[in-house]
Design a protein that fits this description.
The protein has 307 residues and is α+β, with helices and mostly antiparallel strands. Among the domains are: 122 residues, no CATH class; 62 residues, no CATH class. Helices cover 26% and strands 15% of the residues. It is built from 11 helices and 9 strands. The strands form 2 sheets. Strands 1-9-4-5-6-3-7 form a 7-stranded mixed beta sheet. It has a two-stranded parallel ribbon with strand order 2-8. Strand 4 and strand 5 form a beta hairpin. Helix 3 crosses helix 4. It is globular. The protein starts with a strand and ends with a strand.
């Protein structure tokens, strides 16, 4: 199959992929139950997905994507990595349709973060590496550095995947973009493309109207994501690697025990906790094998998959 489908996967996507005309939520649930494989205790991401949505959707949307994102096969990835991803039973295209507040900063994120250091209680020091003696100067330290680095890699380094961001300037055209975010689920090197003009300068096509203060520029920025190992990308640690055998999780647990025994400090963030926090909107979660699939969102912006 080649073309673009809605993500998160919804009734429209399923009808398109399988050439069906499922008309309601009950029909979608029944169809997916027929696709799912019986596995009461899935041991990895592949087994979990096969037991939840079947092999066709798993191999189409998750297998090539996982291979380039994690440099692992689905069978090597821990099931928790995919359990938060949603399948919808209706035609809803948004990731968080039930969230009350969904908006962008009026003046953009740059202006938003420019104001943070302006607070009288905020002091910013640049070009200063962390040193343990700094802990003596504060009542408590919230530290977002990599937990293995903080402890001088006592138990060995923790692996991360990283992203090379390729920014491209393009002329703005009303017909040039299919969606704000495209996820590439084929075998190519890219995983995602974001058209920032559709987020910063919404048009009537996605349900919003430009205000007079939002002047559309002649050019837009498109960002394309290329996954890689963090060692090949200036040590930029983006995603902790979770395998089904738990080998890296076990190393992190040893570091976590050291952190808990360190007074006056909390390691935070994805590097400090070796985890990625997911937004969890209301709805039915992916419950497990042979139980259908859930209605949780899987990204912060609506997008489409290119298969």
């Amino acid at each position: 199959m080649a073309g673009a489908c809605h993500l998160p996967v919804n009734r429209t996507t399923i009808n398109q992929v399988f050439g069906l005309r499922l008309r309601n939520e009950q029909a979608v649930r029944a169809f997916l139950r027929g696709q799912a494989e019986v596995d009461p205790a899935p041991a990895n991401a592949a087994a979990f997905l096969n037991a939840s949505i079947g092999r066709v959707l798993t191999d189409l949307f998750f297998r090539p994507y996982t291979r380039k994102m994690w440099a692992l096969e689905l069978e090597e990835v821990d099931a928790t990595v995919v359990k938060w991803i949603s399948i919808r039973f209706d035609d809803e295209k948004g990731y968080f349709p039930d969230d009350r507040f969904q908006m962008m900063p009026r003046d953009g994120y740059t202006r938003l973060f420019e104001t943070v250091p302006d607070h009288p209680c905020t002091a910013v020091t640049l070009n200063q590496a962390f040193d343990a003696t700094l802990l003596d100067r504060y009542a408590h330290c919230f530290n977002s550095m990599p937990i293995d680095e903080f402890f001088n890699s006592r138990f060995g380094p923790l692996p991360y995947r990283s992203i090379r961001f390729h920014h491209v300037a393009q002329a703005i055209s009303a017909e040039s973009a299919y969606a704000a975010t495209l996820n590439f689920t084929e075998d190519g090197p890219l995983t995602r493309e974001t058209d920032w003009s559709l987020l910063s300068f919404p048009t009537g096509r996605n349900g919003a109207t430009k205000t007079e203060s939002m002047k559309m520029p002649a050019l837009k920025t498109v960002t394309r994501d290329e996954p890689c190992d963090y060692l090949a990308n200036d040590l930029e640690q983006h995603y902790p690697v979770k395998t089904c055998d738990g080998r890296y999780q076990a190393v992190y647990a040893r570091y976590e025990a050291l952190a808990e025994a360190t007074p006056g400090m909390s390691l935070i963030g994805r590097c400090g906790t070796y985890s990625v926090s997911r937004h969890a909107p209301g709805g039915e979660p992916i419950a497990g094998p042979c139980s259908g699939v859930g209605a949780r969102g899987c990204s912060t912006s609506a997008g489409h998959g290119v298969a």
